[in-house]
UniProtKB/TrEMBL annotation:
Sequence ranges assigned to domain DUF8167 in this UniProt record: 9-102, 132-201, 215-286
Transmembrane intervals: 6-30, 42-62, 68-89
A Gene Ontology biological process term: potassium ion transport
Keywords: Membrane, Transmembrane, Transmembrane helix
Name of this chain's protein: TrkA-C domain protein
Length: 370
């Protein structure tokens, strides 16, 4: 008799598990969706009723409602298993509905950042040092030369740690394009700051880089440190200002006290004669739309960049203004364009100064020019 009862209990457990899968799943779905949508736990009695109804339907289809089964220990054990599984599934669904994020968007996925333990605590936001761990070829392009591949594998980039992975990948890609002669680059960065680079070597020289409708011209001048291919350069001549995209930068002569470097820029055909016909030129670089690091660093240090009206025509000396007010004059803007002062200069009453300094020093500059 005990052996018969044990066998019936085991059969009941088996049938309870077989019959209770669907009621348990429905109970979990009800508990999760109700808690996730409304924030309130679904009543347990309702879960029991629904689970019992589903179990009855499943049991009828499986022939478990036969009195020969339902009125024996097999049916009682199976019913208990179904109810316990339904209660457990409902409880788990309720817990998941409580902790599951309410808003998951593509933007939140794109804004994944570097893991906290991979960030170096420097400054306010920290820095992350991304290292190239693998270099792959682009299908359909020639393979990378071995020398270029070795250089790419040794690259290391220091970037702000508060940026999302997508922005970090874009910055690494831009730096690789400006530092190496590559046709196309794709960067994949994981949360441990390990970068995988997929790149292809350039298929041509300057002829492929010059934009349509423009011409490539070269000048010898002192250029800002770090200028490279792809930057937007401004060439200041005594009579005019010319803008163009940098196509290449030559190496300077380190033996000279102020070594000039050969800069190749793409300009419009109308500006070619002006660039080649003038020997005196100063070179500047415009910041990119997504790279306002300079302004961010100035603001973090307590400085501001502001425009100050001249008020009346006069002669200004940037050195004297800085000694008197503490503000640094960096440019003069008017109808004739932007001028970068290097010594005393004449300013008109309709022009304005671009200055950098603390709020107090800028206020003092306004008072001096009033």
């Amino acid at each position: 008799m005990p052996e018969s009862l044990l066998a019936q209990v085991l059969v009941g457990l088996y049938l309870g598990v077989l019959t209770g899968v669907l009621p348990a799943f429905v109970s979990w779905a009800l508990g999760f969706s109700f808690r996730y949508v409304t924030g309130v736990t679904v009543p347990g009695l309702g879960v029991v009723v629904v689970a019992a109804a589903i179990a009855g339907l499943s049991g009828g289809l499986l022939g478990l409602l036969d009195p020969a089964i339902s009125e024996t220990p097999v049916g009682i054990v199976a019913a208990l298993v179904v109810l316990m599984a339904s209660f457990w599934a409902h409880n788990q669904g309720d817990k998941m509905g409580e902790v599951f994020p309410r808003r998951i968007t593509l933007d939140s996925i794109r804004r994944r950042t570097i893991a906290a333990d991979a960030v170096e605590r420097v400054g306010r936001f920290g820095r992350v040092h991304a290292t190239v761990k693998g270099v792959e070829d682009v299908e359909g392009y020639p393979p990378l030369p071995s020398g270029l591949r070795e250089k790419l594998e040794g690259e290391r980039f220091s970037l702000p740690a508060d940026l999302p992975l997508s922005e970090l990948e874009t910055r690494i890609r831009d730096r690789l394009l400006s530092s190496y002669d590559l046709e196309t680059v794709d960067v994949s960065l994981d949360r441990r700051a390990n970068a995988t680079v997929t790149a292809a070597p350039a298929l041509g020289g300057f002829s492929r880089r010059v934009p349509a409708g423009q011409r490539a011209v070269s000048v010898d001048a002192l250029v800002p440190e770090g200028i490279d291919r792809g930057d937007s350069a401004v060439l200041w001549f005594p009579e005019r200002t010319v803008e163009g995209q940098v196509l290449g930068v030559g190496d300077g002569n380190e033996d000279e006290e102020t070594p000039a470097r050969r800069l190749t820029v793409a300009v419009s055909p109308a500006d070619v004669e002006a660039v080649l016909g003038d020997s005196e030129v100063r070179v500047g670089v415009r910041g990119e739309a997504n790279g306002r690091d300079l302004l961010g660093r100035l603001k973090a240090a307590g400085f501001r960049v502001r425009t100050v009206p001249v008020g009346r025509a006069r002669t200004l000396d940037p050195g004297e203004l800085r000694a008197e007010t503490g503000a640094q004059l960096i440019a003069v803007r008017g109808t004739g364009g932007v001028r970068v002062p290097s010594a005393s200069l004449e300013v008109a009453d309709d022009e304005e100064l671009l200055a950098v300094g603390t709020p107090e020093t800028l206020r003092g500059l306004r008072e001096v020019l009033a």
